[in-house]
Design a protein that fits this description.
The chain is α+β, with helices and mostly antiparallel strands. The protein has 2 domains: 3-57, Arc Repressor Mutant, subunit A; 69-196, no CATH class. The chain contains 11 helices and 8 strands. It has helices at residues 3-13, 20-25, 30-40, 59-66, 74-80, 102-106, 116-119, 139-148, 155-167, 173-183, 186-196, and strands spanning 17-19, 43-46, 49-51, 71-72, 92-96, 110-114, 123-127, 133-137. The chain has a 3-stranded antiparallel sheet. It has a 3-stranded mixed sheet with strand order 4-5-6. Strand 7 and strand 8 (133-137) form a beta hairpin. Helix 8 (139-148) packs across helix 10 (173-183). The N and C termini lie far apart (58 Å). The model has no long low-confidence stretch (mean pLDDT 94).
């Protein structure tokens, strides 16, 4: 198998995306990559990330490819879980406290920072609408974050998310309460769930 065919396989497995690091890790030179990108008409969508001509651009996946420590949260997690009617205007992510997120804010990303023990709680892998796997908080953790920041959330977004979550089959009330306790919002979460159950 030639080098171009090897890269073809990487592109296929990446759902149309290709990272420079993948190519180099497979023992293929950057020079060969440059030739491949040119010959195949790939588009550079971010530093070290290319997209094939027949690939669908996925902003969530692209952001995660260059920022492995981010977790999609808040409205973005609601959207990824189907708990929001429309895509949020800004992508929302949570990162560990101390993480330098200046580059993300410059891109218009809304960044929340959490202590390490809370930051990874409820982290899950979900698929974007284009079928790419990204890290996001699970539904139960996302609902806790929604309740924690209720004052800053649009009323319609809040009501729709709560209604869809409570009638959904994938909710896990045990996890919801466990997260609520760890986040110090157990009473608020109990109030909302008792009203809606």
């Amino acid at each position: 198998m030639g080098k171009f065919e090897e890269i073809d396989e990487l592109v296929a497995s990446g759902n149309g995306y290709l990272k420079t690091t993948q190519v180099v890790d497979n023992g293929i030179s950057k020079h060969t990559l440059a030739s491949y990108v040119s010959e195949r008409g790939m588009e550079k969508v971010a530093h070290g990330i290319y997209l094939s001509q027949d690939g669908w651009q996925d902003p969530y996946y692209e952001l995660m490819l260059n920022n492995g420590r981010i977790i999609f949260s808040h409205e973005s997690a609601l959207y990824l879980h189907g708990l929001m009617e429309r895509e949020p205007r800004k992508i929302n992510v949570t990162v560990p406290a101390g993480y330098n997120a200046t580059h993300l804010r410059k891109k218009g990303v809304r960044v929340y920072q959490e202590k390490a023990d809370v930051c990874s709680m409820g982290k899950d892998t979900v698929k974007t609408q284009y079928g790419n796997a990204v890290q996001a908080f699970d539904m139960d953790r996302t609902i806790c974050d929604l309740i924690r920041r209720k004052q800053t959330v649009d009323v319609q977004v809040f009501q729709y998310a709560m209604k869809e979550y409570m009638k959904g089959k994938d909710k896990n009330i045990h996890n919801l309460m466990k997260y609520a306790k760890a986040l110090g919002i157990l009473d608020q979460v109990r109030t909302y769930t008792e009203v809606m159950l």
